[in-house]
């Protein structure tokens, strides 16, 4: 397989994907930026439209959850953010877009012949060693109008330098290292945008109820966290241990410990054993 990186072709991506024919209002590709999420948050403050897409060839300050660095070297991955203004969706429900984005990335992997699973809340793991090939970061807008920026980073080609393992010791991998049938980053971005748009449309129509949108069962099947003994480290550093038994219609993880069940809204999840 040819693993030579070629620039993302914005004309190919825009064809059939921009309104009125397609779902997106704006779709740009830039050669470099600090963070596509940060750029769209700033654009949102200036009145950018619902379903605005920004993709960059590289990020110099890409971030994952809890402000962790996300390696985004030039020509290696697809670094994509989408600004959404879903009128009628409660602010508290915007976090379930992580499920929507995870399922879209999973379709990318499946379409390219890569064995992948989801790890709650925001990781996509690939290959027999469950290495991390993609991550998702949803950031709600701080404004009176409900809005959110959904950031997705996919490692398409091998990273040029070693990346330190994330929480739980997850090593990094790429679609190429997992024998993807294509590593053309325009193809990867096109599949991602189509898969995300279709699921986001259903999510929005259902008022962010994942079950009503027909997305919850698919997520449960693909979520490798379910059935695992896990440790959850909350935003305040507090830890909770238990067995992950479900994901609810709002995208929250349900833990069982002894006779008690509790719902986890956010946190780093470490699988104690696979």
Characterise this structure.
GO terms for molecular function: biotin--[biotin carboxyl-carrier protein] ligase activity. It comes from Amycolatopsis suaedae. Keywords: Biotin, Ligase. This is biotin--[biotin carboxyl-carrier protein] ligase. Residues 20-204 form the BPL/LPL catalytic domain. There is one protein chain. The protein has five helices and twelve strands. A hairpin with a 2-residue loop joins strand 10 (253-257) and strand 11 (260-264). The chain has two domains: 10-217, Bira Bifunctional Protein, Domain 2 (BirA Bifunctional Protein, domain 2, 2-Layer Sandwich), CATH 3.30.930; 226-271, SH3 type barrels (Roll), CATH 2.30.30. Helix 3 packs antiparallel against helix 4 (185-205) and helix 3 (97-111) packs across helix 5 (216-222). It is globular and about 55 Å long. The mean pLDDT is 90. The strands form two sheets. A seven-stranded mixed beta sheet has the order 1-2-3-7-6-5-4, with helices on both faces. It has 274 residues and is of the alpha+beta class.
H and E string: HEHEEHEEEEHHEEEEE
Computed Rg: 18 Å
Q: Helix count, per DSSP?
A: 5
- Main β sheet profile: 7 strands, mixed
Numbering strands along the chain, what is their spatial order in the largest sheet? 1-2-3-7-6-5-4
Contiguous uncertain segments of 5+ residues: none
- The CATH architecture term of the largest domain is 2-Layer Sandwich
GO molecular function: biotin--[biotin carboxyl-carrier protein] ligase activity
Pfam families: BPL_C, BPL_LplA_LipB
Keywords: Biotin, Ligase
Organism: Amycolatopsis suaedae
């Amino acid at each position: 397989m040819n693993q030579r990186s070629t620039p993302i072709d914005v004309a190919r991506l825009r064809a059939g994907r921009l309104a009125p024919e397609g779902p997106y209002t704006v779709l740009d590709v830039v050669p470099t930026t600090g963070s596509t999420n940060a750029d769209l948050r700033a654009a949102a403050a200036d009145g950018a439209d619902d379903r605005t897409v920004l993709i960059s060839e590289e990020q110099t300050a890409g971030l994952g959850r809890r402000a962790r660095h996300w390696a985004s070297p030039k020509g290696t991955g697809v670094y994509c953010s989408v600004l959404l203004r879903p009128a009628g969706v409660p602010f508290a429900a915007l976090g379930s877009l992580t499920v929507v984005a995870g399922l879209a990335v999973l379709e990318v992997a499946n379409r390219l012949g890569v064995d992948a699973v989801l790890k709650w809340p925001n990781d996509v793991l690939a290959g027999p060693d469950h290495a991390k090939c993609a991550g998702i970061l949803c950031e709600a807008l701080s404004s009176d109008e409900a809005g959110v920026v959904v950031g997705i980073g996919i490692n398409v080609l091998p990273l040029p330098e070693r990346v330190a393992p994330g929480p739980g010791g997850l090593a990094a991998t790429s679609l190429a290292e997992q024998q993807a049938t294509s590593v053309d980053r325009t193809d990867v971005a096109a599949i991602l945008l189509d898969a995300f748009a279709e699921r986001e449309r259903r999510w929005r129509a259902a008022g962010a109820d994942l079950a009503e949108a027909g997305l919850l069962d698919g997520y449960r099947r693909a979520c490798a966290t379910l059935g695992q003994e896990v440790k959850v480290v909350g935003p305040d550093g507090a830890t909770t241990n238990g067995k992950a038994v479900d994901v609810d219609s709002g995208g929250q993880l349900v833990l069982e410990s002894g006779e008690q069940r509790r719902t986890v809204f956010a946190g780093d999840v470490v699988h104690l054993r696979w």
